Amino acid sequence: MQLISLTANKNTFKPVIFKNETGLNFIVAIQKNPESTDKGKTTNGVGKSLIIALIHFCLGSSKKESFKNDLPGWSFMLTFKVGNEVYKSQRSTDKQNIIQLNGQELKKNDFNNKLESLLFEIPSGTSELSFRSLIPFFIRPRKASYSEFNNPNALKKDYQIQITNALLLGLDTLLVEEKFKLRKEKERVRNLVSELNQVLEGQQVKEDISKLENDIKSFKVADDYYEINKEADRIKLEIEKAKNRIILFENQISSIDQSRKISPDIKRENIEKIYTEASVIFNSDALKTLEDLEKFYIHLSTNREKRLLDKKNELKRSISLLQNEVDTKKMELDAKLKYLDTHQALDIVLKLKDKLSDLKQKEANIVRYEALIANYQKLKIKTEKELIASTENTQNYLEDAKDIIKSTTDFFRELARRFYPTATAGITIRNNDGDNQIRYNIDAKIAADRSDGINNVKIFCYDLTILLKGFAHNVNFIFHDSRLLSDTDPRQILTLFKILNDLIKIVGKQYILSLNQNQLDDVKKYMTDAEYETIIEQNICLELKDDSPEDKLLGVQVDMDYNK
C-alpha cells in the first residue's frame, strides 16, 4: 500500500498529492512564528497533523464528532495503491458509518475487514489483531502515539500491545494466543474453585434437614386452626370491651363518692331570710311555717343521699358481673390459645415441607459441588501442565527462529548505530514464563533512550524496521508527523534524512514526513546545497502557510479538537 493523494469536495481544500509513490515526500509548514512547532490538536496550525487525522478518517477510524459538527457537508477522498491496483476511499463527515471504496458503499466494519484482507496476514484463531489495530504502526495517529515505540495505539492492555508487535516482527502469534487462553482458563478455574469452596464453607445443611424433619413430625395439623384463631381474636376483643366498661363504672362510682361529700344542708338563718323575703310577696297563709321549710330541706337531702347510694350499689353489681364475664372469657381464651399452641395450620406445615425440599436440593447441590471441585482441581493441574508445555514450546520455537529474529534485530541495531555509533542498541525478544498473559517480552533499546530525542530516534528505527524487515503486512509506506523531530538534535535529523535517502526508494517503499520550516532550517546548516536539494527540495509535495486561512489545509478558519 502506497498513498497517492488526499482530496476533498470543497475547492478551498489544498489537495495533498504525494509526489513519489516510491521515495520521499515532505509536507512543509511555513509559519510566521516558527517557535510554535506543535499545534496538531487544532486548525490554528496550518494542518499538517490534520492530514494524518483525515487519512485515518478515510481508512475507517472511529467516528469523529468534531468533523460532523465543525465540517458539515465535507467529504474526503484518499487515493492509494495496493500492488498494481488503485483504490479510492471516500467518507463524508455527515454520514460517517458509510465509506465508499471504489464507488461501492460499505459499512465501516465491512470496509475495515476489506482493508484487513488486502494488507495484513492475520492467523485465524487470534484475537486483538485487525486492520485498525495494525495500521497505526505505519501512520501514528496522535501525539500519544509518539510516547512508546511499541504502542502507537496508546493501548493500556499489555496483551494487545504484545500481540500486534509479535505479528509485525514475524513471531508466532498462535503461541501468544495459546498462553493468553491458558492463563485465562487457569484464572477461571481458580475463581470457580474459590467460589465453590465458599459455597461449602459454614454449611449446616444436614443438621438443618434433620431438625426440620423432626419439627414436622411433631406438628399436629388442625383443620379448624384458622376458625379457632378467629374465635380467640373475638374473645380478646370482648374481654377488652368488658374491661373498658369496668373502668367506666369505676369512674362513675368515684364521681358519686365526690358528690356525697358535697352537702346540700341549709342553715336555719338562711331559711329565715328566705321566709322573710317571701312574706313580702305572698300572703302569710300561702307560706309554710319555718319548721315546715326546715323539714322540707332535710327530706330533700335525705332523698339525694339515697339516690346516690342506690346508683353506687347498682354500679358495683354491674362491675361484679363484668368481672365474672372477663374471668370466664379469659379461661375460654386460654383454652383456645393452648390448642393453637399445640396444633399447626396445614399451609404452615406445607411451607415447612417446601423448605425441607429446598434444603434437600441444596444437599444434592453440595454433593455435585464436591464432584465439581474434584474435576476443577484436575482441570487446574491440566492447565498448569499445558502452560509449562507452552513455555517449553515457545523456548524451542525462539531457538529455532533465532536466525529470522536476528535479521530483524540486527537491522534495528544497524540503524541505531548510524545515529549513535557507540551506544548499545537492539531489539530483544525473550520467552516470558511468568504467571501472566504475556508470551514474549519484546523490547527495543538504545542506551540513554529516556532522552526525548533518543526516544524519537528509537521510534524511527523501530518503524523503519517494521516497514523494511517486518512480516505479515503489505503496507509499503510510513507517514510520520513532525512530532518525531521534536527535541531531536539537527545532526540526528540529518542522519535520519540520509538513512531515508539511502534505503527507501531502492526497495520500492514510500516515506512521508510532515515538518516545520524551522526544522528544515536547523538541519540545512549541516547539509551541502546539493544534499539539501536532492534529499529535501526535490521531494517537497506540499507547502502550507499560516499567513491566512486560505493558505492552510482546509482553506478556511475552523477551530476544532479532532483528536476526540
Continuous helix count: 16
Helix content: 55-70%
Give the tally of β-strands. Answer: 12
- Bin the strand percentage: 5-15%
Oligomer: single chain
CATH superfamily of the domain at 1-120 and 474-564: P-loop containing nucleotide triphosphate hydrolases
Radius of gyration: 51 Å
CATH-level-2 architecture of the domain at 1-120 and 474-564: 3-Layer(aba) Sandwich
Which shape, going by the Cα principal axes? elongated
Mean pLDDT across every amino acid position:
83
| C-alpha end-to-end distance | 27 Å
Q: Class by helix and strand content?
A: alpha/beta
Which sequence of strands runs across the widest sheet? 2-1-4-5-6-7
Main beta-sheet annotation: 6 strands, antiparallel
Low-confidence stretches: 38-44
CATH class category of the domain at 1-120 and 474-564: Alpha Beta
CATH names the topology of the domain at 1-120 and 474-564 as Rossmann fold
**Sequence of secondary-structure elements:** EEEHHEEEEHHHHHHHHHHEEHEHEHHE
Word description of this protein:
The chain has 564 residues and is an alpha/beta fold. Among the domains are: 211 residues, P-loop containing nucleotide triphosphate hydrolases (Rossmann fold, 3-Layer(aba) Sandwich), CATH 3.40.50.300; 122 residues. The protein is built from 16 helices and twelve strands. Helix 6 packs antiparallel against helix 11. The longest helix has 55 residues. It is elongated, with a radius of gyration of 51 Å.
